[in-house]
Design goal:
heterodimer; A: 246 residues; alpha/beta; Methyltransferase, Methionine Synthase (B12-binding Domains), Chain A, domain 1; Rossmann fold; 2 domains; four-stranded parallel β-sheet; two-stranded parallel sheet; 52% helix; globular; B: 348 residues; TIM Barrel; two-stranded antiparallel sheet; disordered C terminus
Amino acid sequence: MANLTNREMPEGFVEIQMALLDAIERADRTSAQAMLRTWAAAHGPERLLAEVIEPVLAWIGEGWRRHESFTIAQGYIAAKVIEDALDQIITPSQLRSSENATGRPAVIGNIEGDFHSLGRRMVGIFLRANGWNVHDLGNDVPGSLFVETALQTGARVIGVSAMTLTTAHEIRKLRSEIDNRKLAGRLKLAVGGAVFVVCPDIVDQVGGDGTAASALHAPRLFDVLWEASVSAARPAGLSAAQGVLL
Amino acid sequence: MNGMERIMGTVAGQALDRRAVAPVLSLYGARLTDCPLELYYNDTAAYVRGQAAIRSTFDPDALFAPFALASIGAAFGSELQYFADQAPNIKRPAIRSAQDWDHITMPDPDTHPRLLYFREAIRQMAAEHRGEVPIVGVMPAPTDLPALIMGLEAWLETMLFDPSRAREIMAVTTPFFVELANDFFADGATVIASPCAFVSPVFVTRETVVSLSRPALETALSQLNGPLMLHHGGATISAHLDLLTGLPSVIALALDQKDDLATARAILGPDLVLFGGPAGPTLNRLTAEEVQSVCLSMLVDRSDDTRFILYSCGPDIPWDTPVENIAALCRSTLLPEGRPRCGAPVHV
């Protein structure tokens, strides 16, 4: 694995953050869980996300962007360690009161006909770690269900995943659903999946408002799209080429 | 020279009349014959007709047996989803986690209908084209097969967090891989192309390759009765190429479009055949002129490389790719500047 801990650490990185990076590098979920539990007991679980997990994720995400040697395995290990913490250390009420909890709802799912859940699940975990209230609709989700769920939950961002070119084109139906219901200003569409890495130009073709370089970058993309939704309705004629590429 | 002579000449490092070209056109045969894909991926005769159309239309130097990895997963009980314009995919894996692995029954290549479809396609294609064009059998590497049975996430989780269980599982998939691959050879496959994503730095770490993927490949490939082309599986493999040298039975590596060909050659040495080319999934969005230009620049770059074959990286060339784009890819090998400058003179 690319050596995380031998890289130059960001200024201010503390021992627990270094140790968590090391545990992720070694794929050692047990040690990671134990050290996070100990830290949470001493400092408060509600501080865990903002003071430990989020800085570590930001560091890994930046490394992913800069170093092609970074692997899905590394991202996946990080996701599982974070998921363990979210499920077993931090209670839902503590999560809501944590410093970085926005409580913003987000809807994610794989588009109709797509069954490749890995990336979507990682996005969901990283969104939760960044304080989002995630509504994961799973695989094979029709466009209408994305929109209905977003309206019911108050979500302003829909994250839709597709692995292949064929299933990516199904996202157009979701785009049409949003546009036909005149929700383009309110609902922003984040798209992702392997095919968008190979063919970034299809973000525009399928009507995406933005995409991210990896699952780790999804929270930043969702933040940007949320703000775009709040600040202004999507102007008529704004092409997705003017959308966000993180 | 015909396709068989050109491919074998490349393997032997001999001079060629032109560079060999082998775009991945398993799917595209259905488009040329206007065949519904559920029929195409279940009916041997329909598939073989499609590949005959590929040969008559493009005259490539190799023909692919069904590139339908999910169908092999279906032989283990995974549920398939068919599409109107792409190969089938796994809708629901046979099991959900490594804990359920003991419930899996190995399908018999001699009797299971899904596996017989592959075998019969190879037999018929070999009979129809034998001696003129190589038949490439396609099957997932033993490292990747479990992902088609339990799903990508469950398999990745097992490899990363429970390596001993991963070894146990690959100890089961390896004999299956060996048996089916050797059946493919007996049926007439010239070479097996084996997508192997679980050696890629995009998917797994160097440690995982060293401790799990490579040992499994060594065990499996040492038992093959024929040559194998290790396929990048849809992700770049450059950063791990040094871990893939010296694997038994491997005569070729099919690289991702992001892999640098010169770097790969430097790492792998002169003896392995390298497959390189544009990304298959992008060919439907380029013009024929652009396709030819991209291919030609690669051919010029590789003009001194004795063992290079032009192909299309990644999965199948998309359904909606214009015929003239594929023709442009193939035609680029006919252009004078695309010809190899290496090897002994050809005497026809």
